[in-house]
């Protein structure tokens, strides 16, 4: 296993885990405007990176493919919708003191992805994985019954990112090209929204607040950096290691929500999270077993 790859991917998840700290700095700005700027400056920053890495020729080739491939274009459009929804819900949740809800959502997300793979890609789901998904569903159900409301923030985050990952898997584009083209579809809407806000003096962008302006521009950078780190790290480490590392981010968010932002953590949250953690442990155990079976099979084949 490549130690450098593990470290790079780990820092990507640590970066994602601490993102609430960044968005909290913009708690005086409405979520819609933060989202608009995140889209705009992500597009600008990634375009700059592509130009610096001489990636224009590859980008042109991809665009030519899109013109003749309606299915890929549709998948990219869907990716754009799902990631925009995910970004908005996440920003809204953080700035409405629901960091714990984001943590719960990203603990559930891998289990959602397994279910989506089973439904849409006909991927095999083992009995153990089915049990893990069932335990997670019980946790969500317990929360819903106890509070009398569905944990929509957590579910929207898990479902939107799950469907985003599904469409990404089907398009198979590089990290930079994927992010650029996904933001391309929604950047005109973001520009129109921000233009309207500026005209009607509802914007926090320059010259209203220099601090908010710099933070809004930086939103594009903090979006792209962890994606690049993850992409680089994921190329050299096995999938099971990514499966373990992905729980770094929601764990950091969980700790931030309780110990830094003092969000309420009652017996209901304790039971809900405990059920989700049990599901995660069961899920990871099943992954390790599958990997071990594959390794043993390869060893037998090599000996023969």
Automatic annotation (TrEMBL):
Signal peptide: none annotated. Keywords: Cell membrane, Membrane, Transmembrane, Transmembrane helix, Transport. SUPFAM superfamilies: Multidrug resistance efflux transporter EmrE. It holds the Pfam family EamA. It is found in: Cell membrane. It is a multi-pass membrane protein. This is EamA family transporter RarD.
């Amino acid at each position: 296993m490549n130690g450098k790859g593990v470290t790079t991917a780990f820092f990507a998840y640590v970066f994602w885990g601490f993102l609430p700290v960044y968005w909290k700095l913009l708690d005086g700005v409405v979520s819609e405007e933060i989202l608009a700027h995140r889209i705009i400056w992500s597009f600008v920053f990634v375009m700059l990176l592509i130009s610096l890495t001489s990636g224009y020729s590859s980008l042109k080739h991809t665009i030519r493919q899109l013109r003749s491939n309606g299915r890929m274009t549709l998948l990219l459009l869907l990716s754009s919708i799902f990631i925009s929804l995910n970004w908005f819900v996440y920003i809204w949740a953080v700035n409405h003191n629901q960091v714990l809800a984001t943590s719960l959502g990203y603990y559930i997300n891998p289990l959602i992805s397994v279910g989506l793979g089973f439904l849409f890609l006909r991927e095999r789901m083992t009995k153990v994985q089915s049990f893990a998904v069932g335990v997670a569903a019980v946790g969500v159900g317990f929360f819903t019954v106890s509070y009398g409301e569905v944990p929509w923030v957590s579910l929207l985050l898990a479902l939107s990112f799950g469907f985003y990952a599904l469409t990404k898997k089907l398009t198979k584009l590089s990290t930079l090209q994927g992010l650029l083209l996904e933001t391309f579809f929604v950047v005109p809407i973001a520009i129109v929204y921000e233009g309207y806000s500026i005209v009607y003096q509802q914007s926090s962008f320059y010259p209203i607040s220099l601090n908010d302006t710099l933070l809004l521009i930086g939103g594009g950078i903090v979006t792209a950096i962890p994606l690049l780190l993850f992409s680089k790290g994921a190329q050299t480490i096995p999938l099971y290691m990514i499966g373990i590392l992905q729980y770094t981010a929601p764990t950091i968010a969980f700790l931030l929500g309780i110990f830094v932002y003092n969000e309420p953590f009652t017996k209901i949250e304790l039971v809900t999270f405990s059920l989700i953690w049990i599901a995660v442990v069961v899920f990871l155990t099943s992954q390790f077993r599958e990997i071990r079976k594959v390794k043993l099979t390869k060893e037998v084949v090599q000996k023969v």
